[in-house]
Amino acid sequence: MNIQTFRPGVPGQPAAPAVRIVSAVLALSTVAFAGTASAEATAVAYPDRPVRLVVGWAPGGVADVAARLLAERLGKKWQQSVVVDNKAGASGAIATAAVADAPANGYTLQLVTAPEVTINPFLSKLTYRLDRDFIPITLTTLNPMVLAVNANAPYRNAAELIAAAKANPRAIAYSTAGKGSSPHLFAEMVAREAGITLLHVPYKGGAPASVAVVGGEVPLGALAASAAVPFVQSGKLHVIGITGRQRFPGLPDWPTLAEQGLQSAADASVWTGVFAKAGTPADIVRKIDRDIREVLAEPDVAQKLATLGGVPGTLSLGDFSAFIAAEMERNKAVVQAAILDPN
User: Fold this and answer.
1) Is 290:120 a contact under the CB 8 Å cutoff?
2) 334 and 288 in one domain?
3) How confident is the model over 231-262, as pLDDT tens digits?
4) N- to C-terminal Cα separation, the chain
5) Which residue among 260, 292, 319 closes a domain?
6) Cβ pair 52, 95 in contact under 8 A
7) Closest alpha carbon to 291 in 277, 274, 278
8) Cα gap 312→211, rounded to integer Å
9) Three-class SS state of 158
10) How far apart are CA 312 and CA 272, in angstroms?
């Protein structure tokens, strides 16, 4: 599959069979990584200078929070600076394109989220190709999502929100981290199940999307849980519901949407992972994978993520690629229905 040109659901372009999507994404860890085998060399010296970790979203959002925690711990382990470089815009595509143009030496990595790899390919003509330009290394975090309202909003649960939206279609605006972001798809899944129509207002990241609800620019936000936590704790936001089939252990007072009768997005999450440029030496890729997983296994890291509304990821290399393939399959239908053909 040529992700650079393939846009399922766009008039005049046939939708590719699901098997093509899965096969292309699985090739991320086989073709791209196998291409580095001849470049095997000692990774003992890596890194011997600062490493750049590119993030496609604004500071303060779920990706940025995960990146800064990871950068801090890897910096200590490597005894080198790991610098977070925020390149917000185009649902992460600007950052991904920058990493695609960087040298394949392990010194420019990307902290990716779902849009960069499982949503953008269905929406835009991209300058990069996932099956050619990247190696997916490690799934780093999983974060539930929430529908949250301004503390002064008149609706306090899903039933009240749905009733208000049915009474005034498109009158309730909601913020997200951007068009085609995971929260955008999540909100549209919930809206379609509930039989309501909301007005989407995209921002350039989870942090500004949260601030928009706090400041009253919009009454509702579809947010990563970690972006909402500080504002809920300060009493500025109220959680309507969180994704998940059971309440999140770190946030037990937040009701799930599933327990309020909304099942469609129960398994939806904002996830982050680390990508390297294709052609990065295999031994360096393995070292990055191993060291990230060691950092994520530290008890205090898991504890900190829990208080922010997340859990450590547990997938690496080939397993991460299979996870991405499954995410692409699920998101394809939602993108088609909610974004490409909303009517």
Assistant:
1) no
2) yes
3) 999 999 999 999 999 998 888 999 999 999 99
4) 28
5) 260
6) no
7) 274
8) 26
9) helix
10) 10
